[in-house]
Every structure is written in structure tokens, then in C-alpha cells.
Amino acid sequence: MSVKLIRMVPRNVDPVPIHLYSDEVFYYIKLKGGICTAEKRIRFKNEYKLSDNEIDILVGDKPLSEFYERVIKEGTNPKAAANWILGDLLRMLKEKRLTSEQIPI
Q: Is residue 1's pLDDT more than 60?
């Protein structure tokens, strides 16, 4: 029995390029919530030098993560910003019984 391969792309069209990702990216895609989250985790680790624990907390809370990125865009040191947000800011939010969606800006 022979198998015949069928070309699914018209001959006059180039196939879509395939992007290869590292094992680290696939791990985060599978376990941590999608490609955007995976890319954000890798960026936070490589560019901002955050610990895995800091990354877990920031990326696990979308409003907090977005707030962190806005603070970084203003030129604040990424590590100092993470320390302040994960320490003082979260403590203040807890004391006032607010969520990260209610961060007063």
C-alpha cells in the first residue's frame, strides 16, 4: 500500500513560515496561560531581571502587570518598581480592601 502526499498550498503561494520556540516558551504556553503570557514572563525575566516569584505574582494579575509595565515605561528602574509594587502597593491595597483593578493612579 502506498501513500500519496497531497500539497495543501497552491503552487503559486509560498507556505506560511513556521516559527520555532524554545522549550521554555512551550512550557509557559502550556502551563501558564498562552503565548502573550509566555512572552511577558520571558521578557520580565530577561529584560527586567525579576525572580520567578516576582514574575508569577505580576503576570498572574493582569491589572497589576499592566500597571507595572506603565511604571517601567515612565523610566523607573524595573527591579525597584517590582519591589515597590509587590511590597508597599500590595500592602496598601490589602489594608484598604482594594483589588489591583482599583489601583488609584
A: no
Q: How many helices (H) and strands (E) does the chain have?
A: 6, 0
Give tens-digit pLDDT for 16-69: 666 666 666 666 556 655 557 778 888 999 999 999 999 999 999 989 999 999
Long-range Cβ contact pairs of 92-101 (< 8 A, separation 24 or more): 99/63, 100/61, 100/63, 100/64, 100/67, 101/63
Residue 70 falls within a domain, yes or no? Answer: yes
Query: What is the total count of domains within the chain?
Result: 1
Instruction: Tell me the residue range of the domain where 43 lies.
Output: 23-98
Is 5 part of any domain?
A: no
In a domain? residue 6: no
Q: What is the mean pLDDT of residues 88-92?
A: 93
